[in-house]
Amino acid sequence: MNLIIHRGTKEIGGSCVELKTAKTRIIVDLGIPLVDIKKERFNTKVLEGKTIPQLKKLGILPQVKGLYRNEKRSIDAIFISHCHLDHYGFLRYVHPDIPVYMSQGSSRLIEASNIFLPQKTTGFKAVIIEKRKKVKVGDFSITACLVDHSGFDALAFLIQSGKKRLFYSGDFRGHGRKSALFERMINNPPRDIDCLVMEGTMFGRGKQKFKNETDIEKKMVKMLRNKKNITFFFSSSQNIDRLVSAYRACLQADTIFVIDVYTAFILHILGSFSKHLPQYNWKNVRVKFFKSHVDSLAKTEHKDLIYKFNTEKIEIEEIKQKREKILMILRDNSLFPIMLKSLGKTVEMAIIYSMWEGYLKDEFVRNCKEKGISIIQIHTAGHAIGKDLKQFAAALNPKTLVPIHTFEPQEFLGLHKNVKILRDKEVFEI
Ligand SMILES: [Zn+2]
Fold first, then answer.
1. Element containing residue 105 per DSSP (H, E)
2. Which helix (H) or strand (E) holds 179?
3. CA distances (Å), 52 to each of 34, 41, 92, 258, in order?
4. Three-state secondary structure call for residue 216
5. What is residue 184's three-state secondary structure?
6. 382: CA distance to ligand 1 center in Å?
7. How many Å apart are CA 416 and CA 418, to the nearest integer?
8. From ligand 1's centre to the CA of 356, what distance in Å?
9. How confident is the model over 26-44, as pLDDT tens digits?
10. Which segments of the chain belong to CATH 3.60.15.10?
11. Contact 147, 182 (CB under 8 A)
């Protein structure tokens, strides 16, 4: 089989991998880039109003023949590792007849994003892939394995063709709430791997302050016990491990966890996966209604949930009264200034910043400081740190290790004896 990484050999985001034989071509991941050609943050506004040929010409959409809806289809299937936009965000451009395999969790989260977020990913044919069950597509057979990652229900893929075996790690880590999956993989790795295509996000990102979710939970408890005003929780509502950490911290610190309708919806639709995901009607959980969220949900078949969430609704007056007993999920968007205005007295408010620090803008930090709002960073990465990457590569012991999803591919040279750093679009025969 041939491996072609269309994008991702030297960057994080926009992953697109093609595997082909004489008869069959499959694509693994099809994400939106996180950086542009100048290595600056990719602005999704450049996508607006552009046709597929224009986006291909600009080098934004990968140059994969037979993938897009304006072409004669020649791609047999697409496999999506997880529900982060830098892995699935370009699905809206693909040919509608191509089956797109993904986990049930990813499919539900894409559905939730389509309801609440401005970027819609629709028009593709989703097929749910079961873990540890082989899927045959032409010359390939593909087996999905669940991995520990900040993206919920994330997968790695074992891809075989004839006697050749490739393992695509997707994004993964060994320090999340599902770290047992990492241990299991290390102790019982897939054998006879010819090529391991492995992520390396953490190279170049510096040392982590918090080792794992337990560390995060402990730090949050400590902080919440000493609060004198409301604490905001800046986190992705799709980072389910982190929501669980925050909820557990709230229980221990006698704090009300205020979630919004969007977060309540996500936890509800993923509730069938695990009994441990906090729900809107659980102890210490309340729901804050924002009009935009309610309006979005009201347009869908899930509109009855609004009445359910309403039983646990918290109004601004109650938030004001109980401010020092509240942890409220919010983000650095238009809702934040609105909340500040309605709450008054900002002194001694705090923000638990639970996202990658690269997203924290100087201007925002300055504004908070002026208002007396402290920002405390409590975060651990969704990606494996160097020592775990090394352990992973050693356990799988592939004939060749190929870096992907990294700005520092040369760091891989210290991980394994046979590392092949590819260029984007280079054809590599396995
Ligand atoms: Zn990811």
1. helix 104-116
2. helix 179-187
3. 19, 21, 11, 42
4. helix
5. helix
6. 7
7. 6
8. 12
9. 999 999 999 988 888 899 9
10. 2-205+382-429
11. yes
Count of CA atoms in the C-beta half-sphere (13 A) of 83 = 26
d(CA 170, CA 81): 6
Q: State pLDDT tens for residues 53-62.
A: 999 999 999 9
Residues around the ion ligand 1 (C-beta < 5 A):
84, 151, 171
Q: Convert the pLDDT of each residue in 340-372 to its tens digit.
A: 999 999 999 999 999 988 889 999 999 999 999
CA of 44 to the centre of ligand 1 (A): 18
Quote the ligand 1 centre to 143 CA distance (angstroms).
19
Question: What pLDDT score was predicted for residue 357?
Answer: 86
Ligand 1 center–CA 51 separation, angstroms? 27
Longest dimension (CA), the chain: 68
Q: Measure 152 CA to ligand 1 centroid, in angstroms.
A: 9
Instruction: Answer yes or no: are the C-beta atoms of 216 and 378 closer than 8 Å.
Output: yes
d(CA 73, CA 76) in angstroms, rounded, equals 8
Q: What is the CATH number of domain 213-377?
A: 3.40.50.10710
DSSP three-state, residue 57: helix
Q: How far is the CA of 90 from the centre of ligand 1 (A)?
A: 15
Q: What DSSP string runs through 332-349?
A: SSTHHHHHHHHH---TT-
CATH code, residues 2-205+382-429: 3.60.15.10
Length of the chain: 430
pTM surpassing 0.85? yes
> Bridge partners of 403?
198
Q: What is the pLDDT of residue 205?
A: 87
AA letter at 381: A
Phi/psi zone of residue 232: left (φ > 0), alpha (ψ -120 to 50 degrees), beta? beta
**What distance in angstroms lies between residue 325's CA and the mean position of ligand 1's atoms?**
33
| CATH 3.40.50.10710 placement within the chain | 213-377
Distance 394 CA to ligand 1 centre (A): 22
The DSSP output letter for 190 is P
Distance CA 371, CA 340 (A): 10
| 388 Cα–ligand 1 center, Å | 16
Tokens of 283: 């102890």
For residues 152 and 382, what is the distance between their CA atoms, to the nearest angstrom? Answer: 11
How many C-beta atoms surround the C-beta of residue 315 within 10 A? 11
